[in-house]
Amino acid sequence: MKYFKTANIIIFSVLLLQACSDSDIKLKEPPVAVITTIVDAAVSNGNFTTLVAGLQATGLNVTLADTTTKFTVFAPTDEAYAANGTMLTTASGTKVSARVDAETSMLIIGGAKVIIKDIYATNDVVHVIDTVILE
Q1: Would you tell me how many other CB atoms lie within 10 Å of the CB of residue 85?
Q2: What is the b/e burial string over 93-102, where b = at least 16 CB atoms within 10 angstroms of the residue's CB?
Q3: pTM, whole model, 2 decimals?
Q4: Of 90, 97, 99, 110, nearest in space to 58 by CA
Q5: Which residues have CB under 8 Å from 69's CB, separation 6+?
Q6: Domains in the chain: boundaries
Q7: What are the CA-CA distances from residue 117 to residues 2, 58, 61 (Å)?
Q8: pLDDT by residue (tens digit) across 107-123?
Q9: Which of 97, 96, 99 lies closest to 107, judged by CA?
């Protein structure tokens, strides 16, 4: 009798485990992430046209479109640019204004237009301007 009881428990356990097989469980696939670059996000938002124009004028839009690299961008809105203009500090400590011309999308530094961008050197990059900055 003890043998019969043990056999029944074993058979019942096997049947119970078989009834709970993984094939009965349907798992949802995780959603596929849409790869969006920083530039795509800024363009689609619509509040960063000045920033996007500046990125395009300097070629940084290509850099920020690299999905294999991580970036953190502090992105001022168009309203922030309009209210607060941007000031850059030169190597000599002088502050110069920087903006993007809304009509031409050209970067203007201290009143000078950037006419050639991204001449790379081992210690940074050179952007050619069309006039001497006197700020």
Answers
A1: 10
A2: eeebeebbee
A3: 0.44
A4: 99
A5: none
A6: 29-129
A7: 89, 6, 13
A8: 888 889 988 888 888 77
A9: 99
